[in-house]
Model the fold of this input.
Amino acid sequence: SCTKSTTGANCNNRFLGMVTKHLSLKQADMLNKHRYILEKLAASNMKNRKIILKNSPPELFKVLGIVFNLLANKKLDLDNKQHQTLKKHRRLIRSTSGLKGAGMKQKLVAQRGGALATILSTVLPILGGILQSIF
Done:
């Protein structure tokens, strides 16, 4: 809950002030367009996730690059539980944040386990709040 005495970082609407400086409207529009696919990736099992990634358009990997860059550069304000959840996947986040489309596709299709699903399921609620505040 926000009061006048709390700072912007402690406020429920903390996303708007901090992230919009680092997220262009074009990037926010791309995130909004591909949010459905990201939700499906977060909820699907490994076999279906590979099928989705193999057949997905190049724009999806630009969106995933935006998400990984926001995480790698610490532009998202995560609470302690979310930070601990993502802490195990720091290496994947850092190594994927600098990749372009084809390299990211190759890395994420070859990736085993549920790291991508965990990362997306942790970040999507935050991105939803950001996108609601922008649009």
Q: What stands out?
A: The CA atoms of residues 2 and 18 lie 16 Å apart.
